[in-house]
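User: Could you check the structure of this?
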Amino acid sequence: MKNITAVSNKVLLIDLSKDEIRTLDVPEKTRRDYIGGKGLALKLLHDNIKPGIEALSGDNMLVFATGPTAGTAAPAGNRFVIASKSPLTGIFACSYVGGRFGLSLKKAGFDGLIVTGNSQKPINIHINDDKITFEDAADDWGLDTYDFQEKHVDAGEWVVIGPAGENLVKYSVIASKKRVAGRCGLGAVMGSKNIKGISATGSLKVKPTDPAGFKKSLRIAQKKVLSHDNSGRRLKELGTAQNVRIYGSSNIMPVRNFSKPSFDKLEDISAEKIRDNHTIKSAGCTGCPIKCGKVGNYNGKKLVTPEYETIAIMGANLLISDISKIALWNDKLNRLGLDSISTGVSIGFVAELAEKGMVESDITFGNPEVIERSIEDIAYRRGLGDDMAEGVKRLSEKYGGKDFACHVKGLEMAGYDPRGCHGQGLGYATANCGATHLSGSTHSVEVDPMGGKPYIPAHGSRAKAEFVIFLQNLMDMTNASIFCLQTQYPFLEENPLYKILPKFLLRFLSSYIPKFTVNTADLSDYASLLTGLLGCKITQKDLRDVGERIFNLERHMNCEEGISRKDDALPSLMTSETDEAGWEAVDLDAMLARYYKLRGWDDNGIPKKETLTRLGITT
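Assistant: Sure, the predicted structure tokens are below.
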């Protein structure tokens, strides 16, 4: 059996319009500057797509990329990224998923896959080592993601779209096993290319370049992951649903289309109730020691337990407190191929539109029957569901209600209301793909999950720009490597310096001298693991530079699509004065001014030439 030493430096390109299959080499400089994963995917898009192309045209590229960690024992490293120009936002986007497709693609000998052009008919694509074949998918068109994978279980590991992707719903997903790349509508890109599924199988084995060095680093990293209270206990016991009680009691979890700071039936949808009232087993991504995914028994059905985001947006946001209903909807959303966040925000927005007499609809808050019907209407573009399938931004442009349309840059807002954590508002406004919770997620430092004082205050602008920038760069670095974000807690919080410092002093330094905290953050575990994998010295500074470079590259690409200061905005209801207890209006302008200065961008939010030059980004 042949081995791959961490990376193959090969990317497979399939051009459906030209009927062309070839491989691209990954230069050593690209590997050092961008590592893999998100970094590699964005670099491929930057080098091969001209600004201004239509997201659902054959000119768009759909990129799948793995990282050096895939196929190894690196903690939570077997995820992969999917990147493209988003049909929902019109700018570039990346979405992340567990499943097994990325691992199988790596074992087939490829660090990435690019699909461009459009097929004239529905097809499935099979990658078996270096053999690429196509088959007619006419009989598969219309199958949900689970039924399709069950039908073709012997063909390898799949990425697949459901009916929503086939119908070009602007926020349709791509599934791998029962995990999905949920954000930004990349399922519609795959559907526009007439691809139902792509399978991968491979016979290669992945080895670290420096086995002894990697083993030593791995032993330290695994110990931290398993001993940390979050990754070693809370996530194992409760999954990401642990956040329901944390953020629901901190005026952060969205309620009634982001119009209220608290939900009076919070405990009914809490992780603790799920644990106590449903039979649960742990599940998770391949090779992950955390296993934050859960499976439960809901009204006699064995279903995947919803993650925090789904519980928040399809539950409290719609005034639904029946966790069994939410679990059933989660299953339906995954089968149909819909993003639970964008779906729930779209339904909530229409409920408020109808309540205000701005649209004719029977969709109301707290009405499970109508909500369940709406999910299918969106996936199949039936009736008002056809408009809802376009997303909240386009809905507000057609029907009004822009002040309570909860999106940024066209991407529906995730499960954290910025009026309860102002740094998250800055993170939403400046995140490259829109209102994602996976970029600059300061809610994790603005709220202490154990009920104590957080690193920085939830309200106000102090220290927010510094922490948002650090966390955005950190996230892009981990998504390039690829490490799951859940490794950030044990790797960073086990910093010996942070353990020595009294908590009150660390909080003071974080709030008043934030450069101290972000500049002393310990990235040594990431650096040593990657050094062992790649066989070349990777320093903490290298990783900080990688994260900053990737974030600025994506911003530069989006600026070429017309993004600027005008788009770094929040819905007006979040920047306006409020009387709700626990909420304060977000002073976004003050935070943006500081953020742009620290980023090296001009007053219009455009990266300066000297910033791009310093980072080695060619224009």
